[in-house]
């Protein structure tokens, strides 16, 4: 029963619904399970807070959990 957490800057509610549906569909197909077993949350992050709220704790401090590295370096 996977749970997906998306942290994102400045997206509309409509875009969030599209993102949630696409990620749910992809994970469902990849794992061969019903979308009913998948939950997903989207957390809004202010652009000015990205370094402290996301980049440092999620990317720098948890490299073993990172399966897709960002193509940017804000440092």
TrEMBL record:
Keywords: Isomerase. The active site is at residue 2. Pfam families: Tautomerase (PF01361). One of its GO terms (molecular function) is intramolecular oxidoreductase activity, interconverting keto- and enol-groups. One of its GO terms (cellular component) is cytoplasm. It comes from the Bacteria. Residues 2-51 form the 4-oxalocrotonate tautomerase-like domain. Transmembrane segments: none annotated. This is 4-oxalocrotonate tautomerase. It comes from Rouxiella aceris.
């Amino acid at each position: 029963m996977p749970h997906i957490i998306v942290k994102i800057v400045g997206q509309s509610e409509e875009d969030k619904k599209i993102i949630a549906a696409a990620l749910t569909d992809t994970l469902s197909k990849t794992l061969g399970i019903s979308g009913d077993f998948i939950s997903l949350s989207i957390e809004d992050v202010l652009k000015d807070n990205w370094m402290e709220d996301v980049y440092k704790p999620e990317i720098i401090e948890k490299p073993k959990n990172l399966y897709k590295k960002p193509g940017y370096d804000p440092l």
